[in-house]
From TrEMBL:
It comes from the Eukaryota. Residues 44-133 form the GOLD domain. One of its GO terms (cellular component) is membrane. It comes from Ramazzottius varieornatus. This is GOLD domain-containing protein. The lineage of its organism: Eukaryota, Metazoa, Ecdysozoa, Tardigrada, Eutardigrada. Keywords: Membrane, Signal, Transmembrane, Transmembrane helix. It is a single-pass type I membrane protein. It holds the Pfam family EMP24_GP25L.
Length: 224
């Protein structure tokens, strides 16, 4: 039997590499969005996040300390403008909600401050924001305790949910690709019909212009 570099049989080496990939790659592709930025006074800044159908969305936010007259408001809206979460005078906190269909949610921070005359505006406020959805939003420790799963079983459950999420993402991308292809085909056919119609109109206008000029020159006895 041939031996690999590590002295293990070839099939065991392949099995070991496969298991390592299964436990390592998911940590690289789990959707986690964390961001930190500075928000000047009286400025509204919005972030957008793509969320799949039936996803649970969890997030955390923390703002730097600011004077009492500075208020920063947090609003999370769906694609139709409905408020999914709202926090006036946000300082620090968490939120969680779910969506029933595919959404492009919008997370907006807005700072309100009335600058007195002659007083310089305060410095920008630092905002730290973290959002999780899909597999990352699930707490598999609680699931393991509730269902009495072993650590390996809980990890396999997470990998199963992750694979389902990846398949769902690919299906959604394929659906969007089909929609875009249909739109492109409809646009191409409409452009073709419009081009043919424009050519027919130009041909008719040219024919009418030639006939009109011929009658005009005959009336002026410039041609026979």
């Amino acid at each position: 039997m041939a031996l690999s570099w590590s002295g293990l049989p070839g099939w065991r080496w392949c099995w070991l590499v496969t298991v390592c990939c299964l436990f390592t790659l998911p940590s690289l592709i789990i959707p986690v969005s964390g961001i930190a930025f500075h928000l000047p006074p009286n400025i509204r800044k919005c972030l957008r996040e793509e969320v799949q159908k039936d996803d649970v969305v969890k997030g955390e936010f923390e703002l730097s300390v600011a004077p009492q007259e500075i208020k920063t408001h947090l609003h999370i809206l769906d694609s139709k403008g409905h408020k999914l979460y709202e926090k006036e005078d946000a300082q620090k906190g968490k939120f969680a909600f779910s969506v029933e269909e595919y959404e492009m949610i919008e997370i907006c921070f807005e700072t309100k401050f009335d600058t007195p005359y002659g007083r310089p505006p305060p410095p920008p406020r630092e905002i730290s924001f973290l959002i999780r959805h899909g597999v990352e939003a699930k707490n598999y420790e609680d699931i393991a305790k509730a269902e009495k799963l072993k650590p390996m079983e809980a990890e396999l459950r997470r990998l199963e949910d992750l694979s389902d999420a990846i398949v769902e993402s690919f299906n959604h991308m394929r659906k969007r690709e089909d929609e875009m292809r249909g739109t492109n085909e409809q646009t191409s056919s409409r452009v073709l019909y419009f081009s043919v119609f424009s050519m027919l109109c130009l041909l008719a206008l040219t024919t009418w212009q030639v006939l009109y000029l011929r009658r005009f020159f005959k009336a002026k006895k410039l041609i026979e």
